[in-house]
Amino acid sequence: MNGKAWFSLLLTLVLGSALTVIYVKHQSRVLFADLRNIQKQQDQQVIEWGRLQLQNTTLATHSNVESRARKDLKMRLPENVELVRLQ
User: Fold this and answer.
1) Which residue segment(s) compose the domain that 30 sits in?
2) Can you give the pLDDT of all 87 residues of the chain as single tens digits?
3) Rounded CA separation 32/24 (Å)
4) Contacts of residue 73, Cβ cutoff 8 Å, sequence gap at least 6
5) pTM for the whole structure
6) What distance in Å separates the CA atoms of residue 81 and residue 40, rounded to the nearest whole number?
7) Helix axes of 3-59 and 62-72: crossing angle, nearest 10 degrees
């Protein structure tokens, strides 16, 4: 091979390598942007999960259950209560 052939081969390899680096860097940026979006979604879901846990705890308190039973279901305590103990 003469000098021009070697030069054109090296030039082709360098250009191919440069284009590969550009493509890989672009893919890296795209994947990083996707990762950031997924992390934002995860953060929002963690916040929503915490809010739902707090709401569940609030709704499950004894006073809240009793007040909702009285108001929504029209429940009341019985007037005549008899306790019977068995031996």
Assistant:
1) 7-72
2) 788 999 999 999 999 999 999 999 999 999 999 999 999 999 999 999 999 999 999 888 888 888 888 999 998 888 888 888 898
3) 12
4) none
5) 0.59
6) 57
7) 70
Split into its structural domains, the chain has a count of: 1
The DSSP letter of residue 60 is T
Q: What is the dihedral angle through the alpha carbons of 60, 66, 67, 71, rounded to the nearest 10 degrees?
A: 120
Report whether 51 contacts 57 (CB < 8 A). no
Indicate whether 1 belongs to any domain: no
Q: Is residue 37 in a domain? A: yes
- Give the C-alpha separation, 72 to 57, whole Å: 19
Is 20 inside a domain boundary? Answer: yes
Cβ 56 vs Cβ 50: under 8 Å: no
Query: Is the residue at 78 inside a domain?
Result: no
Element (H, E) at 49: helix 3-59
